TrEMBL record:
Pfam families: B_lectin (PF01453), PAN_2 (PF08276), S_locus_glycop (PF00954). SMART domains: B_lectin, PAN_AP. GO terms for cellular component: membrane. Involved in sporophytic self-incompatibility system (the inability of flowering plants to achieve self-fertilization). It comes from Triticum aestivum (Wheat). It catalyses: L-threonyl-[protein] + ATP = O-phospho-L-threonyl-[protein] + ADP + H(+); L-seryl-[protein] + ATP = O-phospho-L-seryl-[protein] + ADP + H(+). InterPro entries: Bulb-type_lectin_dom, Bulb-type_lectin_dom_sf, Pan_app, S_locus_glycoprot_dom, SLSG/EP1. Its EC number is 2.7.11.1. Residues 1-25 form the signal peptide. It is a single-pass type I membrane protein. Keywords: Disulfide bond, Receptor, Signal. This is non-specific serine/threonine protein kinase.
Length: 462
């Protein structure tokens, strides 16, 4: 016989000793006749997450919020905030309660509505919710259920600054809006800050951190549509990153395969850094598995056109692509890189141009995706078009989104926002003048593409 699941054991214990405070206080449910007020919380069945009112102790004016946090992590533990832009200033009789329309609503002493689930906006009718209940599940998802148990609203559909395992972030916008993680304003202020993280609206394979509406950092381009893993020694498990079509949209998610119970999250912090991190319970601190940007040079376009950020150097800095030189040598030596680089030898097109390959690269932004091509066909596509300046190729071989297992990317303009990475990235083939005497790889079928299942991380949700 299988061992009893933990919640069953807790339930049995609670049943036998129903006055025991652990059982009597905070269940995982919020019921119509039991509103939540300051000081009380509900807790997920396994005790990982709590939902309730909180304030940030070090802030001068005390503002209160309703949010979800890791119950057993003492600090930097919030994963979701309901009323992030509408703080409670007078908590004395603020409540989170069911309304007559079966929504959940947060209101303060003056009966000001500060936040609501607004289930009709989500396309669900309030009649479905009548007699419903709300519960916090073991994944940290706050779920409003109808009396039949169907989900009519869930916090996972309304991300704030944190992506948790089993949450899906929408990265296309055919009929729904794109979703983004939006930073806090400061460590003490959960109101929406300047930085956000999500897919490029024009191209779901590419993700950005934005500072306002300006690109701040770009993730590498997804080169695998299914599952990619990143082994993490400290938790002896492999994190997966996944793109998944659900209904008419594509969603990104990540997580750890069972039986791992490590607490994992991806967060955009107030300073614009995106982090994938795991809770180290032995050291009682977060360990960053990946974070970025970590250098000025990792920021979007920092090295200018045809320049790249070389992360393999002891002092991470910008370099020109091979065969290129700085547009302004003085600026370049003074570490002003924005003007970028130019070719030393003009292209001749058709008269022996070749491709110079650079491995482990974060390939440039602004690509053209040519579908359904073999490697040879991808090379031919670039070779035959004089405006093609570079290409990269990946055979994704399995399970594709949009019915295509190939990824032939071409660049026809300036090459911007490249990085030389350590132990990840892919081979970029840059068109060069083959008559200039340098040794280049003339890439026709002779050139095998080394297949690197990228994924480095979270912007490796990146
Ligand atoms: C609920 O959503 C609808 C549609 O988006 C909007 O018009 C309405 O103002 C919202 N109600 C509340 C109370 O936020
Ligand atoms: C109802 O709510 C669920 C959960 O938030 C959501 O997935 C769904 O799209 C909503 N709309 C309809 C019409 O079911
Ligand atoms: C956010 O952007 C505004 C201008 O859009 C700027 O004044 C402010 O300093 C920025 N805040 C942070 C925290 O970067
Ligand atoms: C973000 O943009 C604002 C201007 O909109 C600028 O003042 C601020 O320095 C930028 N922050 C970073 C970290 O680049
Ligand atoms: C915590 O300590 C235990 C026992 O020493 C060890 O087995 C485990 O791997 C450690 N976990 C982490 C995340 O370091
Ligand atoms: C891909 O190209 C081949 C010919 O190169 C063609 O037969 C096939 O139908 C194409 N597939 C799609 C999905 O366009
Ligand atoms: C070359 O590429 C450019 C940019 O995508 C495109 O506009 C042009 O039609 C292409 N030329 C040929 C001959 O394919
Ligand atoms: C991709 O790789 C798979 C497995 O190696 C192979 O069967 C398939 O033909 C390749 N597809 C293309 C378009 O090169
Ligand atoms: C890259 O070019 C070198 C020669 O410069 C060649 O030996 C190597 O095989 C090429 N690598 C790939 C992946 O094409």
């Amino acid at each position: 016989m299988d061992p009893l699941p933990l919640h069953t054991i807790i339930w049995l214990v609670c049943w036998s000793f129903w006055l025991f405070p652990f059982c009597a206080s905070s269940g995982s449910h919020l019921l119509p006749d039991k509103p939540l007020s300051v000081g009380s919380t509900i807790t997920s069945d396994d005790g990982t997450f709590a939902l309730g009112f909180f304030s940030l102790s070090s802030s001068s004016t005390k503002h209160y919020y309703v949010g979800i946090w890791y119950k057993n992590i003492p600090e930097d533990n919030f994963v979701w905030v309901a009323n992030r832009a509408m703080p409670i200033t007078d908590p004395s009789s603020a409540t989170l309660a069911f309304t007559s329309g079966s929504n959940l609503a947060l209101s303060d002493t003056k009966d000001t509505l500060l936040w609501t689930t607004n289930i009709s906006a989500a396309g669900n009718s309030s009649s479905e919710a009548t007699g419903g209940k709300a519960m916090l599940d073991n994944n940290g998802n706050f779920i409003l259920q109808s009396s039949h148990g169907t989900i009519i609203w869930q916090s996972f559909d309304y991300p704030t600054d944190t992506l948790l395992p089993r949450m899906n972030l929408r990265i296309t916008h055919k009929t729904h809006a794109l979703q983004r993680l939006i930073s806090w304003r400061s460590p003490q202020d959960p109101s929406p800050g300047n930085f956000s993280y999500g897919a490029d609206p024009d191209e779901f394979r590419q993700r950005f951190i934005w500072n306002g509406s300006t690109p701040y950092m770009r993730g590498s381009i997804w080169n695998n549509n299914l599952v990619v893993g990143q082994y993490v020694e400290s938790i002896k498990s492999t994190i997966y990153y996944r793109l998944q079509p659900i209904d008419d949209e594509v969603y990104a998610s990540f997580g750890l395969p069972p039986p791992s119970v490590a607490l994992l999250q991806m967060k955009i912090d107030y300073s614009g850094k995106i982090k994938t991190r795991v809770w180290n319970s032995n050291k009682s601190k977060w360990t960053d598995l990946w974070s970025g940007p970590n250098h000025e040079c990792n920021k979007f376009g920092y090295c200018g056109p045809f320049g790249y950020c070389d992360n393999t150097l002891p002092i991470v800095t910008c370099k020109c692509l091979d065969g290129f030189e700085p547009n302004n040598k003085q600026d370049w030596t003074a570490s002003r890189f924005s003007q970028g680089c130019h070719r030393m030898e003009a292209l001749t097109c058709g008269q022996g141009d070749g491709f110079l390959n650079m491995s482990t690269m974060k390939v440039p932004s602004q690509f053209l995706y040519v579908k359904n091509r073999s490697l040879d066909e991808c090379i031919a596509e670039c070779t035959s078009n004089c405006s093609c300046t570079a290409f990269t190729y990946t055979n994704m071989s399995i399970d594709a989104i949009n019915g295509d297992e190939t990824r032939c990317l071409l660049w026809t303009r300036d090459l911007i926002d490249m990085e030389k990475l350590i132990g990840q990235g892919e081979t970029l083939y840059i068109r060069v003048n083959g008559l200039s005497g340098t040794v280049y790889c003339f890439c026709f079928s002779a050139c095998a593409v080394r297949y690197t299942p990228l994924f480095a991380g979270p912007v490796e949700l990146q």
